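User: I would dearly like some help making sense of a protein record. I have put the entry right below:
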Amino acid sequence: MLPNFLGVQELDAQQRSKVYDELSSASHPDFDFFFMVGLSAIIATFGLLLNNVAVIIGAMLVAPLLSPVLSLSLGAIYGDFYLFARALEAEVKGILLAIIVATMLTLLAPGAESTYEILIRTSPTPFDLIVALAAGAAGAYAFSKERLSATLPGIAIATAVLPPLATIGIGLGLHRFDIAGGAILLFLANLIAIVVASAIIFWLLGFGPRFSKIQEAETMNRLRISFILLILISVPLVYLMVNALNEEALRTTVEETLNSQILGMDDTTITSIHYEEIDGVLHVEATILTPEPLTSSDSVRFQNALENVLKRPVAFELDVVRLTVYNVEAEPS
């Protein structure tokens, strides 16, 4: 058996049987399951399109997709192919249904466009993986302890299985494959992390094979494979996080450098800054609103300041919008 370093108290045979029966029943791919998945997908899709956090949370509470994920873990630990296969069928069909519903609703919704709640689900980081690991462990433990059942709604929110699926559908409906791709990565990270964490908890609670060394070895191999998948999925998450941090640092540096060049210029503001890297050269375009006459020498001054700070070649374009200021003095009373 896996060493129980956490001191988790194992369940007795009756308790384990009850958990097995409840998870097996909750993971059955029947009409009730798919009906709830469809309804939760509708709620989540409109919550995301409306940028409404409360509605999205409601969708998480309605969605029944967490139970099949926990059943996958339990089936893998038990070596129960029937439970594993049935849970996999329910999860895969539920995933496809949620994506199809979200795609269709997005295609039918007039003026549908990306919102903040959609975009934040397209750039997963290792922190999302850590949250999913903790939520998966909490879900398995709470499902196994009847007195902790009141925490399950909160765990359903923390695991956030459904919103990434709705985001995938929205991305497909908007023909924004960058949105769909980022959401796929987030969903896979959540799924793998929940399976790994819940499998460990189920093992510690005594669900693993007890008498067969062969079965125990097979279960350990399945856990190793899960850990490998967890490591593999963490690689792109780390890459995305590093890129995001570098992008934020670059944005801040460019803004601060340009703003430093207009100090002392009254009524002058930088209204917009756009930049992109092309063939190793950072192309920066800035729009300045000012009453002062700026010339090409000012543009060169901005460019030199950026190159000195960034230590890289910069192509700079300055768009000047002339501002006329009228001062009207108050008449004496």
The chain has a mean pLDDT of 84. Residues 137 and 200 are 8 Å apart (CA to CA).
